Amino acid sequence: MAFERRVLAPAICVLALFSGGAAALATAVNTVRARSGNVSATLSYRHDASNDGEPFSDLQLTIVRNGRPLYRAAVANAACGSLCWPNLPDALSVADVQAGGQPDVLLNLYTGGAHCCNVTDLFRYDPAHDNYSSLLHIWGDPGYSLRHLDASRADEFVTDDDRFAYEFAAFAFSGLPLEILRLEGGRFVDVTRAYPELVAHDASEQWRYYLDNRSDGTGLGFLAAWSADEYVLGRGADVVKQLAELERVHELRSTDAGVWPAGAGFITRLDGFLRKTGYTS
Q1: What's the pLDDT score for residue 3?
Q2: Residue of 271, 142, 207 lying closest to 261 (CA atoms)
Q3: What would the DSSP string read from start to end of 111-126?
Q4: d(CA 178, CA 139)
Q5: What pLDDT, in 10s, does the model give residues 180-239?
Q6: End-to-end C-alpha distance for the chain, whole angstroms
Q7: 100: which residues sit within 8 A by CB, 6+ positions away?
Q8: What pLDDT is stored for residue 271 in this prediction?
Q9: How far apart are CA 255 and CA 261, in angstroms?
Q10: How confident is the model at residue 43 (pLDDT cuts 50, 70, 90)?
Q11: pLDDT confidence of 5, banded at 50, 70, 90?
């Protein structure tokens, strides 16, 4: 999907040239457009590069179906209110993610702040009421990629489980296990277990990251992610044995054991966390 971004309102630009108003230039209206089949969407916004705290404002979304505007509103949601930033350059796309014959509009936004949060407002067409309703999903830091993974016509949202961030290590050393979602029946459903080859690849990567970092005492975040992947693959018994052996040879080290769990404490905390997050029962 190609994304178009252009500056509108030339009258504003002309006024700025004659008035010396750099601020007016900085806040000219910008647009992003996307289309698929009979559905097109336009996101407009203002950008003030001099405003570090709130550089984007006046976000407006318009959805047109069969040449008729069916949705037009200011952008606002539970994640960032009306202070959302467009997640450029991929702020807007139109795709039939459920393969139901009705293109969906995906508005990708950012809440601001370090390592958080990428969010998506997914607008679905409601034929009974001839309008659009939105479904909000918060991805956290990882965001997602929309991929077609199997013979089904539906697309999958490939991401990472952001719940592991800061749980066992600082963010830079937090492993985030693979997570794959699909839109089914108007909600996001976890289908990660349907793709064991992808999970196994991620587990291998997480294990390698652990090995690369364990001598520095910064590997336990990756070991936690490896454990989660292994449980998804049905190898929980192997995880228990591996962690017990690593504890026996004093390899469950942390550079800051006062903040992050280490040793037997790591195993205990990981076990509780995997239960809480649904990786184990």
Answers
A1: 28
A2: 271
A3: --STT--EEEEEEEEE
A4: 12
A5: 999 998 899 999 999 999 999 999 999 999 999 999 999 999 999 999 999 999 999 999
A6: 41
A7: none
A8: 98
A9: 10
A10: very high
A11: very low
* Residue 261 structure tokens: 């769990």
- pTM for the predicted model, two decimal places: 0.87
Residue 160 has pLDDT above 50, yes or no: yes
HSE on the CB side for 115, CA within 13 Å? Answer: 11
Task: For the chain, give the DSSP string.
Answer: ---EEEE--HHHHHHHHHHT-HHHHHT-EEEEEEEETTEEEEEEEEE-TT-SS--EEEEEEEEEETTEEEEEEE--BTTTBT--EE-TTSSEEEE-TT-SSS-EEEEEEE--STT--EEEEEEEEETTTTEEEEEEEEEESS--EEE--SSSSS-EEEEE-GGGTTTSS-GGG----EEEEEEETTEEEE-GGG-HHHHHHHHHHHHHHHHHHGGGT--HHHHHHHHHHHHHTT-HHHHHHHHHHHHHTT----TTTTTS--HHHHHHHHHHHHHHTTS--
